[in-house]
């Protein structure tokens, strides 16, 4: 507590202390000493949250301390790392304090009751802390009428509080100090005053006039942005939003708001963004939603809204993002939802929508994402770009009469279940990629009137037993690969009344592989064009049929001739490939031999081989791996020793730089790496360079990489003691790079595939082709900054890596060892391994995280501790990640023979973070050690 008191005094004295000039230094010193005594008062709040009753502020007989720093007007301590309880008595002496900002810290404990004893307080910001306990409502109510409290980001275990009632006397406040305004989080407090946003210079705090308090949020006539998300607000949303003429963004998501949306909610003339998702809102969507002329972002998902959407939704507003998922919205999708010409994402899944998908969506060129599943939509799907197969579950639509899916990209066979649609009259799937035979169940469709499957890849023979198609008027199977004879049943179908002497209104079987004789009915000229492109057919317009034996014999001869030609061509092609491969390898070897004298070798250890032996082993048969930085060969030397040779990829993307500088940077990196001597670092024997080609010769690791072994069928070889030893070895190697190398070395691509295993499964960190010495120029930086699933979150916006980036990647490796899962897996959906572990811990428990191949019953406690270390290393905030030296110590403490205390008693603590990245109030460990 003493460091905090001292820092408070320093801020008091250097930033916002306004003392009269008439006071002497001696008197100032006495007052500062008195303030220090008060801040060190043992009557500070207890850990249970109880607060002593503050003594009266005035009176001769009062036990209160004398006035200390009475002229202190403003105090800014935001964006620090204070982590203690806020002492109530420390605020009592500051009777003139008007502006108090303690946001963006780690204060804990209850809110001090002495806030009500600050008669001049105008602005209060306690957001982004870890305060707990109930909100002292009497204290806030007793604040001056021009006070603006803000604690939107502090966590509290109390029950949800409603939106601001009309009785809370709040008034406008000017912006804080420029530095504090720039660092202050963009979250207004729950009880907002009327904020007149003017471009003029605000007056000093003590000159602001007092105004009547607003009746509700609707009185914020000049508010531009209201953010109340991630609190515990409850109750209905107040009416009167149409009066907010300047409001653009309203965000009250992730609360417990209930009741219907007010009818005038969307009538704010400047409203652009509304976020009310993950609440308990109910009732219909207001019709005024279609009148919001500036609305672009609408997110109301995960509520209980019902009723239809306004028919004019999107016609009067430039909607770009609409998410109304997980509600009970019914009716049809508004036809003009994309009329604004800016719609990019439309998410309406998990509702009760019905009717067709609007045709206007097909013309919406800005649309990039549409999700409509789990609704009751119907209508046509033709003339789109839908892909995949026809689902067998289509048989559940027993009343389906028209199945029109032409002009799409459907593939695969037609499911047999299509024949289970008794009312199907029209089946059109032309111009797709369907293949396989026609399902026999189609013959059961007695109500089938139109069948159009032309321009697909259907094969097999035409259906037999189709005498039930007595309503068939159109049959188009052209441009497929159908074979066999035309079934006689096709010529016995009843005559439609409108066709008189014709059996079918439309018949097209052209461009297939049909054979045999045409039925007599189709030998007339009326069907002359129905069988074109079938050279095996005869009779009618196709010409007379030859003798049966001669025709069969000729066809067999042709087939054998074609087969012989195909086999000969294939043999010539294969022989040509073999010849070319042999010649190419011979050419490469000869070129290497010619250039041997031009290779430059830089050794870092005493070598028992020369560069010539290395060149002779650079053969494709010796390739043992290929990664983002290059290809790896296994070279067995004349003395029987094996080494690993990494041939780095060329660098065409870096030709914009000077080649000499590139070579200097590469040589500087390699020279640094060649000096590394550690038992857990793969030894770099030497480096060979020639023009653009660069070779790094490492010691050979017989058991390959950890990633290949862990995620293969041989993963069972790695029992828990072996995995624990691998984690400790790799941690010691990285700790050496970070703390014992001068300058420190950042690996930049820590992953399980870059941790190699020797013959006894000892782990060594490898692949320094992508490392960068800290402090070197940017031209020596490698082009790779990590692998998918291992990249730290902050890299997305900083594009820089440091030791904390390596620590995050190592945390992912630890999670791989404990769970046996890859860092990115289709089973995780949109999550990575870190998020999957956290969600599984919260939803199912720790037993569902461990690798099933391990003896969990014996080593559960060790595995739990190592898992906690991995989650700590993979924290989303870099400041929370321990150093590698600290990680090594924590892993050593996991050893059951070591009885040292462990701070990771609750494994869930490392997963409990606020959505905006703040630490959990339960997290107390200093991760920066």
Low-confidence stretches: 9-25, 38-68, 137-215, 495-503, 651-658, 773-784, 898-905, 913-929
Write the CATH architecture name of the largest domain: Orthogonal Bundle
| Quaternary organisation of the protein chains | single chain
- Calculate Rg over CA atoms: 38 Å
Signal peptide: 1-24
Biased composition (Pro residues): 52-65, 159-178
Protein name: non-specific serine/threonine protein kinase
EC number: 2.7.11.1
Chart the SSEs and their pairings:
Blueprint: H1 2-14, H2 25-39, E1 74-76, E2 99-101, E3 123-125, H3 137-141, E4 148-150, E5 161-162, H4 178-183, E6 225-227, E7 233-235, E8 249-251, E9 256-259, E10 273-275, E11 280-284, E12 297-299, E13 304-308, E14 321-323, E15 328-331, E16 345-347, E17 352-355, E18 369-371, E19 376-377, E20 387-388, E21 402-404, E22 409-412, E23 426-428, E24 433-437, E25 450-452, E26 457-461, E27 474-476, E28 481-484, E29 506-508, E30 513-517, E31 536-538, H5 548-594, E32 600-603, H6 611-616, E33 623-626, E34 630-636, E35 642-648, H7 659-674, E36 684-690, E37 693-699, H8 706-710, H9 720-740, E38 745-746, E39 755-757, E40 763-765, E41 772-773, H10 795-798, H11 803-819, H12 833-843, H13 856-873, H14 884-893
Parallel strand pairs: 1-2, 2-3, 3-4, 5-7, 6-8, 7-9, 8-10, 9-11, 10-12, 11-13, 12-14, 13-15, 14-16, 15-17, 16-18, 17-19, 20-22, 21-23, 22-24, 23-25, 24-26, 25-27, 26-28, 27-29, 28-30, 30-31
Antiparallel strand pairs: 32-36, 33-34, 34-35, 35-37, 36-37, 38-41, 39-40
Helix pairs in contact: 1-2, 9-11, 9-14, 11-13
